[in-house]
Amino acid sequence: MPNSWMHLHSQKAAYALQSDLAGADPFGARDCGWVEQMRPYICEFTKPGDRVLDPFSGFGSTLVAAGLEGRRCVGIEIEESRYCIARERLEALGMDQATLLLGDSEALAGTLDPVDLVLTSMPYFGCGFESENDGQLYQASNYGAYLEKIRTTLIALKAALKPGGYLVVAVENIRLGGQFIPQAWDVAKLMMARFDFVEDRIIVYDKPHDDGASPLSNRAHEYVLIARHRAKPCDLETSLTIAQELQQEFPEILLIGSFARWLAGANVAPSDVDLLLPYDTDLIGCVVRWLESQQFQIARWGAPVSAEMAVIASETAQYFRAERLDSAGRRVSLDVSFSASPELYSSLATRARRLNGTRCVTDDVDLG
Fold first, then answer.
1. Cα–chain-centroid distance for residue 102?
2. What is the C-alpha to C-alpha distance for residues 114 and 52, in angstroms, rounded to an integer?
3. Average pLDDT score over residue span 103-132
4. InterPro entries from the xrefs (predicted)?
């Protein structure tokens, strides 16, 4: 099994970015990743012939690493100057199995054939990079905009990644303006919202400590965040108990989706419980307050909401999520929808049947 950390001492000159190409970059390619950093993850999470995608390919280090390990690879780079440098580097190394695209990874990821691994170093916030590209993460004007761009890019990357494939992201926490910015931990939260988070690892580099910075550290490390494109584990028996308790308290609730089909005996593995309510703001508020009393965390599109906010938001998004993870590792996730169409709810309620004492709709449901 791999260690949870990796200590990198130096780069092999044969595969490092050539000095003349580094000199063509305004920053001197100071943010260029190491080929040695990427090779172990390519070997661990892919096999020869698989496809690797780097959505922030920069100077092409991931593509070089993939080529050395016999994988096909594609990189996306938004900055034309870096795209050109990467092309020269790949051509000089004879990496003809690498495809390099110029553009925004959020826009281009959906045009690709599915890949087996997404592997990248995340552009960091606040580095002062000037660009004419609106989607350039380096020049995000504020941290909220930076995180939102990462969120929407992760959505696009999930569509480009094969089911079961891995997303591996190297990212640092940073200091900016005398403040600590938990960039790595915030990116991890965004990954967890869309993927099954597997683990984190640490890469350590040789870098001397500056006594003038004491007691602060030399920041000679970064996190490698590993997630997978698969359903998160769900404790089915606990989920069923919660669903039954909810229906006992609120008889209007219907079970729909994969959990309802699982109850009916279908060969499916639900990752959550889909529930449907009639559109009634008083009922929505009561359901959220009941879930809060059971220590569920309530969120809408990943952002925490209270019962009052869930009611206000219901006019524009007929959905919220409730999650709870207990001390034994049992996870329950409820996706609660409420259609603004009374006819739809009435139709589904008519089709519902009782399974294990729970009202379920076991055929496909389109909430529009």
1. 23
2. 9
3. 92
4. DNA_methylase_N4/N6, RM_Methyltransferase, SAM-dependent_MTases_sf
Q: Is the pTM of this model over 0.90?
A: no
Q: Are 113 and 87 in contact (CB under 8 A)?
A: no
For the four alpha carbons of 70, 74, 77 and 81, in that order, the dihedral sign comes to positive
Confidence of residue 128 (pLDDT cuts 50, 70, 90): confident
Strands 353-355 and 358-360: antiparallel
The class of domain 5-228 in CATH terms is alpha beta
Q: How far is CA 140 from CA 61, 91, 135, in A?
A: 23, 31, 8
CA dist 124 and 137 (Å) reads 7
Q: State yes or no: pLDDT of 1 exceeds 80.
A: no
Q: Where in the chain is the domain with CATH 3.30.460?
A: 236-360
pLDDT for position 312: 64
Question: 39: which DSSP letter?
Answer: H
Condensed to tens digits (0 to 9), the pLDDT of residues 15-47 reads: 999 999 999 998 899 889 999 999 999 999 999
* Tokens 């130096």, residue located: 10
Structure tokens at 47: 């096999």
Identify which of 261, 277, 265 has the alpha carbon closest to the alpha carbon of residue 349.
277
Q: Phi and psi dihedrals of 187, rounded to 5?
A: -65, -40
The answer to whether 276 touches 254, Cβ cutoff 8 Å, is: yes
Range(s) for CATH 3.40.50.150 in the chain?
Answer: 5-228
Question: Are residues 106 and 86 in contact, defined by beta-carbon separation less than 8 angstroms?
Answer: no
Place of tokens 């669903």: 243
Residue 346 has which token pair?
A: 């009435």
Q: Taking a C-beta distance cutoff of 8 angstroms, is the pair 64, 35 a contact?
A: yes
Respond yes or no on whether the N-terminal peptide bond of residue 114 is cis (omega within 30° of 0).
Answer: no
What's phi and psi for 167, nearest 5 deg? -115, 120
Q: Would you state the CATH architecture of domain 236-360?
A: 2-Layer Sandwich (3.30)
Q: By the 8 A CB rule, do 265 and 227 touch?
A: no
CA dist 55 → 1, 11, 110 (Å): 27, 23, 11
Which two three-digit tokens encode residue 188? 């991890």
> Residue 167 has what pLDDT?
98
Residue 275 Cα to chain centre, angstroms: 24
